[in-house]
Specification:
Blueprint (H helix, E strand, L loop, with lengths): L3 E6 L4 H5 L2 H12 L7 H8 L2 H17 L2 E5 L6 H10 L17 E5 L5 H13 L2 E7 L5 H18 L1 H5 L2 E5 L5 H9 L2 E4 L13 H9 L4 H12 L8 H13 L4 E6 L5 H15 L7 E6 L8 H6 L4 E8 L21 H18 L4 E6 L4 H22 L7 H16 L1
Bound molecules: 5-phosphoarabinonic acid.
Amino acid sequence: MDLKIDITKTGISKEEIAKYSGDIENAMEKLWSEKEEMTGWVKLPMQIDQEELEKILNTAIAIQEQCEEMIVIGIGGSYLGTRAAIHALVGFDEVYGTGIPSSLYPAVKFAGNTMSAVYLKKLLEDIRTKEVSLCVISKSGTTIEPSIAFAVLKEALINKYGKEKAANRIYAITDAAKGVLREEVECEGYESFVVPDDIGGRYSVLSPVGLLPMAVAGIDIKTMLAGAEAMATSPSWDFDAADYAAVRYALLQSGKDIEIFEYYEPQLEFFAEWIKQLFGESEGKDGKGLYPDSLRFSSDLHSMGQFLQEGHQIFFETVLNIEKPSKDIIIPESAGELLAGKSINQVNKAAMEGVMSAHEEAGIPMVKIDIPELDAFYFGQMIYFFETTCAITSYLMGVNPFNQPGVEQYKREMKKRLTEL
Ligand code: PA5
């Protein structure tokens, strides 16, 4: 069984979708042609270098034996996919939002995605009290947030273990030849992996960028790649990503400027963050794009539910539905007649169906994506499905899905101010 997408509640007819079929065909051909820049992710699940995959798995075992905690340093595309996977598949904790250690695998924590000294101080304390390794990920090797975190944490590591032993606890994933991080790798002899040249940050989760830290956390990365491959080689070559892309574009044309991703399992919190970055950075340029947002239900029904039902109707909803959550609990008698004896998943499902029916009555367009189970295989499918949808919709909008000139601009402006300090 694969991911299933239901677009029957979007108000977009089959005829309207068919209008885009020529453009979509062109988009798919472009993506698979191997002639388009930055499309290395398209064939990655089928063409991943097996030798490199083995090196990733062996390095992951070495890290697991070496430390109780690995700190992954990176931001944006060099971090969100990994965090999404670890949060969804390994465990989540409400304070740090990071992987919980099990008896077999180290905890994975994240740094370099904010400039919070308060948070870095906590990680320094971890280095003082635990066996820690660092995995620094930056394609450019020059991004400010990870540079700061790496400098601070590396210094603490050197102070604790000495320069040589610390170097054996540092793993770098960066460009093959360019950037200061690559220079440092060459100079200090860190174990390293390459961010492929033809894959941009937000499309890189199935490259060493995501695979190494996920493997350290105990995620079955071969199965995840198999899930992505199953999607990529599905008998219908557009595996419904094309329909979803057409619907998104048609809804944008009809005045829906915002797509809200809604999920009923908090395990999807960082997957929603990953989707937001993927769509936001790929589509949001030249005054175009759908603004991606996310809501966690049922919590956010008690804050944003009113707005959705009766507020300014500038949005449509995309529901991420996990059909079979991995755990369930039967509600005890004391919860009262309506709830007692039912399972929490049954009640959660009733909430989803109730919300969808109320929103349908209000005329809100809704896409529903059914995910059979939240495991490595379907996670691979989800990644590949959204990456393809995103690239197709960007082409329909007439923007380049693979650059981010606006991000570069703010980085330049920030650096100007830093040199003036
Ligand atoms: O998707 C992207 O390209 C960006 O989000 C980058 O991943 C992010 O800015 C981090 O860049 P780098 O990996 O060069 O540190």
